[in-house]
């Protein structure tokens, strides 16, 4: 389990900083990462809706570093990568489901990532896929509340005013 936790830290650090850089570099955002942000309201399969270069930079390199640095066994790696993909899909599903284990153990969850995809919210909550530590340390953490919608269900709303 220590290897899995360490792999989570490695992948989270890599993906958080590369993701942040893709937002701050106008060329990378316009030509690479903006494809993913066409999804203002995320949905599960949208987690993997991105430019191939983004998949290579974030997922392949991040996964390879997690595997190599922690020296995971192939069996542990299969568990870890399946867990990471399921977590990423859950983060983009747009649903806050009661009893969802990811929502219980991770503050970086569906609502957290929904805020990132909302208008002007893309300046916040870059951290992915597991922890929110980098956003908290670098001042880009956007707290949120869950508000009951008139039509049913819950909606994530930022607790700060996002107007420029």
From TrEMBL:
Gene Ontology MF term list: aldehyde oxygenase (deformylating) activity; iron ion binding; oxidoreductase activity
Main localization category: endoplasmic reticulum
Subcellular locations according to the entry: Endoplasmic reticulum membrane
Catalytic activity: a long-chain fatty aldehyde + 2 NADPH + O2 + H(+) = a long-chain alkane + formate + 2 NADP(+) + H2O
InterPro entries in alphabetical order: Fatty_acid_hydroxylase (IPR006694), Sterol_Desaturase_Related (IPR050307)
Organism domain of life: Eukaryota
One Pfam entry name: FA_hydroxylase
Top-level enzyme category: lyase
Fatty acid hydroxylase domain location: 5-140
GO CC, any one term: endoplasmic reticulum membrane
The UniProt record lists the keyword Lyase: yes
Signal sequence extent: none
Family: Belongs to the sterol desaturase family.
The protein, known as: aldehyde oxygenase (deformylating)
Organism of this sequence: Ensete ventricosum
């Amino acid at each position: 389990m220590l290897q899995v936790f360490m792999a989570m830290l490695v992948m989270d650090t890599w993906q958080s900083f590369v993701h942040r850089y893709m937002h701050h570099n106008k060329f990378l955002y316009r030509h690479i990462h903006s494809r993913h942000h066409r999804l203002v309201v995320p949905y599960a399969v949208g987690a993997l809706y991105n430019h191939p270069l983004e998949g290579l930079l974030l997922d392949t390199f991040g996964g390879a570093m997690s595997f190599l640095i922690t020296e995971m066994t192939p069996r542990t790696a299969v568990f870890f990568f399946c867990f990471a993909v399921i977590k990423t899909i859950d983060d983009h599903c747009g649903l806050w489901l009661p009893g969802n284990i990811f929502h219980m153990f991770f503050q970086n969850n569906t609502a957290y990532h929904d805020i990132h995809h909302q208008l002007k919210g893309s300046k916040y909550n870059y951290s992915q896929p597991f922890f929110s530590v980098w956003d908290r340390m670098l001042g880009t953490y956007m707290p949120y509340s869950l508000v009951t919608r008139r039509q049913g269900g819950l909606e994530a709303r930022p607790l700060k005013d996002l107007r420029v």
